[in-house]
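Quick look at the format.
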Amino acid sequence: MTDQTHIQPHILIVDDHREIRDAVTRYLEKNGFRASSARDAVEMDAKLTAGRFDLIVLDVMMPGEDGLSVCRRLSAEGRMPILMLTALGEETDRIVGLEIGADDYLPKPFNPRELLARIKAILRRRDRHETSAGKFTGRHVSFAGWILDTDRRILSNADNNDVTELTTAEFKLLTVFLERPRFVLSRDQLLDLTSGRSAQVFDRTIDNQISRLRRKIEANPSKPEIITTLRGGGYCLATEVKSL
């Protein structure tokens, strides 16, 4: 028989409330997932060191290092997808979480079925992203005088004297553009392609992420020439892309 533990996605639930950890763990296991839990960032780090996980369900409000700090740290390391749990009505936490690299959010209290649906959507998006990465025949991609190391998520210029690290959110966004050069993408399309979700009213996540990315790759971010804005249309990578 096939060992199912090798094909079941492994989810790590990080929340200081034992009842939530236990309930989510049981529900995910009943629905074909492996699940482990941690009560804080320290225990989470120990679990991440000891094993491999496919996604983290991360609470914002925790004792010690809070969820936003954890998300920022893990996103910078490019670890894995993150779904954040936020207190109902805490819109600031939701926006900040998405901007620093979280793949989705879910306000508490939540329906376990919705949590399951969002986890599946994130994992599908991850699988599509990994598959589409095959469009780049090499691990290095060049555009507009920059070279992207797709394994290390590092940008360098042609002389290799200007090296820039990308956060998980920045890397996802840049990769979407690099796979579709000179193609106009709306905010809704960019949100779907980067995080598998739809835009909501006044959602400026993509605009903020593009502003951060422009500060890293544009000679003059206030007058962008690489990622351009089309009035009423969206954004476009206005340059050629080559695999090295």
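Next, a different chain entirely:
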Amino acid sequence: MAGVSAQAKRVVVTGMGCVTPLGGNYSTTLEAAFAGRSGAGPITHFDPLGFSSRIAAEYGPALAPKVLRARDLRRTSRCVLFALEATAEALNSSGLEIDDSNRDRVGVAIGSGIGGLGTILENDAILREKGPRRVSPFTIPMGIANMSSGMISVHHGARGPNVCHVTACASGAHAIGEGAELIKRGQADAMIVGGAEAPILGVTVAGFASMKALSTRNEEPERASRPFDRGRDGFVVGEGAGVLVIESLEHARARGASILAEVMGYGATADATHPVAPDPGGEAASRCMEWALADAGIPPEEVGYVNAHATSTPLGDPAEVVALRRTFGGYLDRLPVSATKSMTGHLLGAAGSVEAILSIGALESGRIPPTINLDDPDPACALDHVANRARSARPGVALSNSFGFGGTNASLVLGITDL
């Protein structure tokens, strides 16, 4: 958590990998985001006939992580497949080799909001149609939310802390922050952290739709997710994973790793007001950002870019703007803000880690990804919007917000200022 002393270890990012509706790896996802491309389209994972919302941000290609044997693919939940695929890229880009010399000091923290719910639903249908003897013995192992962390540990031999944060849409961000805390406390030298989610299921879409949380722009899915726009009517559910390799600065330097960014600060708070609606006053969300900045040891004016949680819901977007105003005051008027969910859709438990990765991509490249479909900015969401086109900038420090059902909040401060 925030409040670590100035003597604490610095934590850096040495590898990143992702699988998103924008692409099957980091580079394709990042370039699609800079290009302002939407990953949304008609739902193909199930027949959405009769649903009020029939669109989603799906990942189309087949998933076949190389660490799995062919016979194991059908036994492994889609959520875990996403996690394994993104982890392979993150480890490869980091150059971190896990072997007998270090495996006890490498941990895993992959968050998820609903984990392998698809596996549970499939086997519930089998139970009802064919009876209990036909239910797969993999139902429980592949249904539980922590199995992404578990399978990464199994296949890569990481024997350090192995945890899973289940905090709805903040899961991936909490995994990064809490993984960094394990390194700061000296319980690991490196952590594989992030989030994975495969939520495009009939019951999930129907449930969100019943809450009036999803966009019903079924005829124009690419324009449906429109954070901060006056015409927003809900989010577009997405799927995928974002995974980072983080290490203590000393450990990364000792092995000659390329350092991509620093996890400078982390904050976590709770609204304690409502199960699903954000606190319109923004007090706890603002305090979360303030704690992350205090943990980083920087004033608000050093932040050069905010990747907003903004999901494109009528209540959530203005509540975050209120919280941002409480945190940044007048500086907010010249602080670039964008919402990459306008392109990826809302990846729920994977959203925070994918957005942290995109934020680091912005810091590295000198380009800020846009909020697409922002044609008529809501006056209640007045910001320095990076609207519809990427913006050239060298922010140095980025803040990434993730807020979830249950009133859970997470903020990450990421930087490349003095590395």
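The two ends are 23 Å apart (CA to CA).

See the schema section for token definitions.
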